[in-house]
Design brief:
Length: 110
């Protein structure tokens, strides 16, 4: 079974993603922000990280960077409701597997 870390400061989105992924048979661990996510990444192993970008205190770019430092083979999918070209480029340069803007994906455009 694949273990997925879902990181989002919005409880509704975090719960939604967790429920949908669990229904598909994945083991899901949820973090309510960047600090919790980084602690989990350092203490546990994951097959995938899905993280929001805009979060208070520590953002998703920081979660991406720490994930890359901890295990560069873990794919990280960035999600956001607040898209910017600069953030998408930064995320992809830092090694994000994908960057979701609403329903669109940067990988689909490449």
């Amino acid at each position: 079974m694949n273990k997925i870390l879902v990181v989002d400061d919005e409880k509704g989105m975090r719960d939604f993603l967790s429920i949908m992924l669990k229904k598909e048979g994945y083991e899901v661990v949820a973090a309510d922000g960047g600090r919790d996510a980084i602690d989990l990444i350092k203490d546990d192993s994951f097959d995938l990280v899905i993280t929001d970008i805009k979060m208070p205190r520590l953002d998703g770019i920081t979660v991406l960077s720490v994930t890359r430092e901890t295990d560069p083979h873990i794919p990280v999918i960035m999600i956001t409701a607040f898209a910017s070209t600069e953030t998408a480029v930064e995320a992809m340069k830092k090694g994000a597997y994908d960057y979701k803007i609403g329903r669109a994906s940067c990988r689909e455009r490449v």
